[in-house]
Each structure stands twice: as structure tokens, then as C-alpha cells.
Structure prediction request, 545 residues.
Amino acid sequence: MRRVILSFMLLLLLFGVIQSLAHPQFLIEELHYHYELFDLRGLAKGTIFLFSYLLATLFFLIVIAIKSKPIFYMALFLLFLSLVIDFFVQFLGVSHGFSISEYRLALNETSNYQFLFAYATNIGKSILLSLIVVWILYIIRKKVLKIRFSNWTIVLLFIPLVFISMVTHRVDTFKLSSYPSLIKIPLIAVENNRISAPLRRRVLSKDITPIDEGRFKNIIWIIDESVTGTYLSINGYPKDTTPYLTKLDKNSSIISNFGVVNSISNCSGKSNLFLRIGMVPKSKQHIKEEMFKLPTIFQYAKRAGYTTWLFDSQTQKDHLQDYLTLYDKESIDNFKTLGTDVPRYKKDSTLLDRVAQITHKSGSRKNFIVVVKYGSHFPYFTSYNHKYSPFQPTVEVAYGGMDMEHKEQMVNTYLNSIYSSVDLYLKEMVKKVNFENSVVFYTSDHGQNILETKNLTRTHCNTEIVVKNEVSVPLFVFTKDAKKRFPVDRDKFYSQIQIFPTILSLFGYNKSIIEPYGDTLYRGFNSSEDREYILSSSLDKKIYK
Prediction:
């Protein structure tokens, strides 16, 4: 038994080291990212992640202790191949190693395999290191473990695979790229086939070209996370959650407030995708056909001569999310993400500094920038600097809180997040961005349900009962003389769907191109019923209850 435990510890150390080749703190940061005790679910998530990683180590212990030599040597060969792939990706500077992004890239670039010879040195190092690891495993089997398991125990290998597959599917912060190569590579292949529609390029017809020059040098689109428009005091909420914005709206023309508008969906993935492609809710069949065909706003921007940028505070470093594909990235000149070394509540301000620099130093270049914020992502306790906590009492425990007994604390915690993510963030944005020739559109992907209906504790993505606040978000436009350039008719209703066609007009496209995407913000709806919704994953649902 002592030899088994010693072998297990050696394997745990070995795979921890080889996964941290490109980034020595990789696994430590992964554990810290999931184990944050101030996260309402941190202890549970961290423990599940640690347990799943221990199961992955058990997988290798069974492999090297299997009685059958042919099975053992076959497993070593497969491990060697997977290590070569993972080491190679790490040597390219990707700290997490092989991931679903690299898998999709490999599928798309199979015909260009000859280009790999440019990385002959990295390939050589990867092969050498993989041989060393395989040799170490062979030594552990021969000199340390010695115990042999019956061949039937090979069926136990499916336990770690199934468990890891389940937890990475159910918990959005768990990534398959965090696990050893022999486990993650086959699981990544399975996951890609599960979630992917056929990968294909979105085509923007060659006949579509702007007829005018862009009206702004810098067009910026900020898409916040989980910000409910009705919780902002600038929109009438009784607690002063946005003191700066309220004062700015009264005393300055730099902001135009369209009030509380509907979001296109109550779920992040769909909202961000549909905002990116200008999807207007139509029939169920039409949506399913068009959601993977319509060109993106980035393609229109490139055609209009803009340099394109995507800053994403939510996803892990170099990861794609919200149905963004490698083909979509072809129209994005600059894609910026942050690693787990940056605390959640600092990610938005960190990327804002980069956005502000672009507006001041662009020269003659035109820029189209999309910012996907971390915002007020649940759990709210982790999404803001607790130095700024004007609303008390708040959630102070690692668990619980999402129940009627603690509703006041949960709401106050959310209000503190709103104050930080919206008011303080936009205050910083107004100070740093050069508005002489820049315009900023600000909205959120969806709102939140915070115990507004009894027994409905899910904050968003609900399908059976959808609370109105889930699809109620803010919409601001910031620019010089915003109130004149983007006037608001208080007798009209607006939707965030209108941002896409509005930006097309600013790119210089004519009405025939813009009109299929609906009305711009220069024209409101006569009633709130004119606005449509696509809720959660149910594409046939358009009206909330």
C-alpha cells in the first residue's frame, strides 16, 4: 500500500510539473481560481476540481500498474503522442497547453501541415521531453510500484474520464485544458463534436461596401455582464447605485441615456452571439439557419476600413466563448484576454486602460472595439473591490445566501457590484477615453433575477418562468454632444438590438444594408410589445412571462 501511495504522489508531482512547463504557476493558479473562499461556491468548486484532478492521477496509476504488458506499452505510446502535442502547444507560448481552440485550429489547418516544419526546434524539444516522461513512468512501474492490477481493472479508467467530462460540462469555469494530456485530448475531441455546428466561414458579400466614410475614428461597444437596467438609480432605482452617472446625465451632454431596454436573450451565450451578428428574433427555423451564417459586426467593420479589437474579461486566457469560432477570429485583428493571475474585479479596469490608449494613440487608424466585461457576474461577492461597499448588510459567508431569508443581503451585494462595475467603471472610462472622435455604446448581455419569484433562485437563463428583469438592461451612448447626436424620445421604447444597425450606419453603409437588421437608435418603438426576445436555449420562445 505504501508503494501505491508513493507512486500516486510521484505521478501527481510529475503531471503537475509537465503541465506547468510554459507557466510555472499554472496549476497553482487554477486551484486558487476555483478555491476562492469568498466565492459563494468557491469551496465546492475548488474541492470538485481537486478531486477530479486526483481522479486523473488515479487514471495514470491504473495504467502503469496494469498487468498486461501490451496494454501498458500501448498506453505509453498514446501518452507519448499526447505529450508531444501538449508540449508543442506550450512551447508556442500557450500556457494552458492543448485546448479546444487548438483542436479546432488543427482541424481547420490540416492541409497546411507543412508549415509545422518552421517549428522544428520546438517539435524536437517536445519529442525529447515526452520520451523522458515516458521513461520516468516506466521506472515508476518497474522500481517503485511493482504491484500489478488485474486486467479487468482497465474498466475503472472510464470513471475519471466520465467524471471529468461531466464536471467540465456542468461548471463553466472548469476547462478540459487544465487536465493531463492523455485525458484531455480525447475528451476535447468528444466535446468539440458535441457543441459544434459545422465550422464554416460567415460570408459578407463582396457587393456590400460602405458609401460614406465612418463618422467616428473610434467606435467602442461595451457589453457588460449581468447588469439589470432597473437597478440603476439613473433609471429610477431608489438606492443611489449610480451617483456619478446621474450627475453626469444632468450636467453634461456627453451621455445619452436610452433608459431600461430589453436584452435579446436572458443568457450570455445567445445574447453575445446575436448582438455580434445583429440577429433579429424571427421564426424558430429562421434563427437556427441564420445564427451560424450571418456575418459579424467585425466583418462589416473590416470592410469599412476599421482595425478590429475584441477585449474579453470573462473567458480564460486565449479561450473563445459565446459561439465565437476560429473563422470569426479571422475578422478580429486583435484579441485580448487575461489570465487567472488578474483578480476578477480588476479585469475590466485592466483592459479599459488598453482601450483608452487606443483612442489616444490611433493616429490616422480607425478602430472598432468590442469589450466583453466581467461585470457583475454571479457570485456577486467576487465581482467588486470590497473597499467600495456602500450598501449593507451584504453576503458575508462562503455558502448560501440565495434564499428569501437572505434576500436583503444578496440584493445589497449585487448593488455594490453594480456600483463598482457600472458607475465607477464608466466614471473611469469617461476620464480616460478621448471623446473628440470616439463614441461608446454601453449595454449588458442580460439582467438578473434576484429572488423576485418564490422558488426561482436561478439568476438568469430561465426558460419556464422568466422574470422581466432577466431581459431588462441599460443602454447608454457616450460621445461629444451625445444628447444631440443620439437623441432619446421619452415616448418611445428602445432595444439593444438597435445597436447593431446603428453602428452599421456609423460605418457608412447605406439603408438597403441596414434595414434588414431593423431600426437604428434614431427611431424608437411605439410600444414595448414591438420588442422581441429570444430566451435562454429555447429558440422558439420570444415572450417572457
Summary: The longest strand covers residues 255-262.
